[in-house]
Design a protein that fits this description.
The protein is an alpha/beta fold and about 270 residues long. About 40% of the residues lie in helices and about 20% in strands. Helix 2 packs parallel to helix 8.
């Protein structure tokens, strides 16, 4: 065999080897990217919920399911920024609108329909690839529904986020809601409460008193603003509200990331 024939055979062998094992040549796979997508969530009664799924580039196996407020739909700043900040720290998020939002109606008096919506959203979240831990969250009315669900069935929840949770009637901190007080004393899993420092449904003195009497104290995230993180009525400022929202969302995401790391280390 002459030299030229030998070289040709050697080159052919190398080419075949590279074709068979593409990873051996150091081909770099494109980096994973975060993704945000609109989703449809089926309910047992045949109604479809609208949602947005935020998938992180480097998932931790944790997803947060976020129910909207009574009139605060999933596209408003606080819920959007919270989901985005969670996504940035490796925590997936599913924010969704109640069926009555989409139908432009009213919530059910006892929230029974909303609890059914919530179960459908939780089932959807559990089906997301790689999810091992589900945290339930809600804004205002969504937080009330979250507490009701967690009170009835908590085994499949890793934690809870109550965002602008009403703990007393507006402006009446002297009469806290008994159900909320009882829940706070009994809840044993990681949880967080986030609100504005001028939220009429969550006087800071009443909130600190509630937290002090908990079996498992919550993380408190307090940002400037009212129930929607706006400034005082008559002095609303869009830029200021966005800054308040961002501050609250960052605190929420930091808490979620810490627990995601703890759950990962414990497996």
């Amino acid at each position: 065999m002459n030299r030229s024939t030998g070289c040709a055979l050697l080159l052919l062998a190398v080419a075949l080897a590279l074709a068979a094992w593409p990873d051996a040549v150091g081909e770099e796979k494109p980096p994973a990217r975060a993704a945000t997508q609109d989703v449809s969530i089926a309910t047992p009664r045949g109604v479809t919920l609208e949602g947005v799924l935020h998938l992180p580039a480097q998932p931790t196996g944790v997803i947060v399911v976020i129910g909207a407020g009574r009139g605060y739909h999933m596209g408003l700043p606080f819920l959007v920024r919270t989901a985005e900040h969670l996504q940035q720290v490796g925590v997936a998020a599913l924010r969704f609108d109640w069926a009555y939002h989409t139908a432009k109606g009213q919530h059910s008096p006892d929230l029974a329909v909303e609890l059914e919506d919530l179960e459908a959203a939780l089932a959807f979240a559990r089906g997301v690839e790689g999810v091992r831990h589900v945290v339930l969250a809600g804004k205002s009315l969504g937080s009330v529904a979250a507490v009701m669900r967690a009170s009835a069935h908590a085994d499949d929840l890793a934690g809870l986020m109550l965002l602008t949770w009403p703990i007393h009637p507006p402006g009446n901190a002297a009469e806290p809601f008994p159900a909320g007080q009882e829940f706070a004393r009994s809840w044993q899993k990681p949880w967080l409460i986030a609100c504005g420092d001028a939220d009429p449904f969550s006087d800071l003195g009443a909130l600190y008193a509630l937290a002090a009497n908990c079996a498992h104290p919550p993380r408190l995230v307090i940002a400037p603003g009212d129930h929607g993180f706006n400034g005082p009525r008559g002095r609303e400022d869009e830029a200021g509200m966005q800054a308040n929202v961002d501050l609250a969302a960052r605190g929420i995401a930091r808490w979620a990331r810490v627990w995601a790391e703890a759950w990962a280390a414990a497996k």
